[in-house]
Amino acid sequence: MPGSGRLIDQFCEAAEAWVRAVGAADAREIAFYVLFWAGGSGRYKPVGAVDQSGLSPAQREKLTFGQTRGHFTIDQVRDRLQRATNVDGFDEEFLVVSLVAAIATKFEEESETYAKGLAKRRAIAERWQAEYDDEATRAALIEEMNTRGRGTKRFSEADFLEMIEYVKASTTPSLRDQRERRRRSDAWREATAALVDPANLEAYSVERLQQFRDSGGFDNPDLDL
Questions:
Q1: How far is CA 117 from CA 98, 161, 212, in A?
Q2: 222 burial type by CB count under 10 A (0-12 exposed, 13-18 middle, 19+ buried)
């Protein structure tokens, strides 16, 4: 039976609360994780990509990866989660609570394994640079990106280089960065605390049970799930 949608609404509200708490421009990071994990990244078109029709080649080269590709939104997250529960048959509580935990783990790992993360990103940057420097490998990877991608802009050598430089830029140790990662992690747990509170989940279960009974259920008014 489809969920009531209440936990999905609370999840989206928590994502917006996290945005306000950390001072982010929007919830694109949360949206990316959710759509990637919930099978929606290939079903929705990113928004906010810069219109390049009137730009010169030099201006286009200055655009960031996000400006050329766009980003996902919380409205898309809401739609995907509703489809996952109403059409694909996922249990709403399981799906939402799992996503909350997965994102919390992601942020916590970024905070607690900061030094290891730097080393990992250095290794990634070095690998990508080696792949870029090899002409045959570079061409194959670019072709793969364009085969898998669903955006309107083809992935180019310039995009590849920008990805490498972006990762390289994140390999320099920073006390401020460490503190920001901890703040992001704490803010997510605070934003979702009410959602995953046992009392809230119990209220949702009661609401869903009543919804099931009202729909006829097994014609058993005493049914308990």
A1: 24, 21, 46
A2: exposed
pLDDT in tens, 174-213: 778 888 889 999 999 999 999 999 999 999 999 888 887 7
Predicted local confidence at residue 57, as pLDDT: 78
Q: CA nearest 93: which of 7, 1, 12, 35?
A: 7
Q: 161 is written with which tokens?
A: 């280089």
Q: How far are the Cα atoms of 5, 70, 159, 192 from residue 144, in angstroms, in the given order?
A: 37, 19, 13, 37
Query: Residue 223's pLDDT is what?
Result: 46
**Is 72 buried (19+), middle (13-18) or exposed (0-12) by CB count in 10 A?**
buried
CA angle 110, 10, 183 (to 5 degrees): 25
What's the pTM value of the predicted model, to 2 decimals? 0.69
